[in-house]
Specification:
The chain is α+β, with helices and mostly antiparallel strands and 251 residues long. It has ten helices and four strands.
């Protein structure tokens, strides 16, 4: 048989189930839960950020940020992919014509202005050519004001300095900053956007003045043949006849 020995002299009780390990176990579980929550929050933020950036890349302001960045790096190829030169010129010509009417048509009756406008149709290719030649400098001039803004800030925070009005596959962007006039129209082209129109009254006036001054200088040259020859140099056929018809309108 086994013996049971009891030490009656010992004054210290013996606890076989200590409470300290249990407290440590609960604290460890809390730490694990908190760590898991932090990891889940980081993962959720990363996933949300990924999808937000992915969506942002399909917006007009992202393509505009690409244009600003390309202009900063003088990357003409990238600019050409994001700018529809032909559509911009087509939209810009009426601005030039309006400025020409404003400069040279003051005091004229509306029907006279219409007749002159019809007569000036052969001159429009030259106007387009001049506008197209001015376009690269215009784009750099318009984007220069935003070149100091980091690319990501331009893409994410464009709404802070631009009014963005998007409707389906078309969008208009206008500067909120008075001393930085900027107004363009864009259209969706695949997963990016292209600039299709730029409004610039100063450039329209400058081109209209330049062409108008050339026309006036030519008109002062006597002789239809001489004027026609000068017209050929700038790409306008039968300029002598056009000027004669214009003079008849004002008689």
């Amino acid at each position: 048989m086994s013996k049971v020995i009891v030490d009656l002299e010992s004054s210290e009780p013996i606890f076989h189930n200590s409470q300290i390990p249990e407290k440590k176990s609960i604290f460890g579980k809390i730490l694990k839960i908190l760590a898991a929550l932090v990891v889940l929050t980081i993962l959720a933020g990363a996933v949300g950020g990924f999808f937000y950036w992915r969506h942002l890349k399909t917006t007009p302001q992202y393509s505009l940020a690409l244009i600003v960045d390309a202009a900063r790096r003088d990357d003409q190829k990238a600019i050409d992919e994001l700018v529809d030169t032909d559509e911009i010129v087509e939209d810009f010509v009426p601005q030039i014509v309006d400025k020409a009417v404003e400069l040279y048509g003051r005091g004229l009756a509306p029907d006279v202005i219409q007749r002159v406008a019809r007569l000036a149709t052969p001159i429009l290719p030259v106007v387009k050519q001049r506008a197209k030649a001015e376009l690269p400098d215009l784009i750099r001039e318009k984007t220069a004001a935003y070149e100091k803004i980091p690319f990501w800030a331009m893409a994410i925070g464009a709404g802070n300095f631009l009014d963005i009005d998007q409707e389906n596959d078309k969008a208009s962007l206008k500067s909120k900053i008075p001393d930085r006039p900027f107004e363009i129209k864009m259209k969706r082209n695949g997963d990016k956007w292209q600039v299709v129109a730029i409004k610039d009254e100063k450039l329209a006036r400058r081109v209209a003045e330049k062409i108008g001054q050339e026309m006036i200088a030519m008109a002062k040259n006597r002789g239809k043949d001489k004027v026609t020859e000068l017209g050929r140099r700038i790409g306008i056929k039968n300029l002598g006849e056009l000027i004669e018809k214009a003079q008849d309108i004002f008689k």
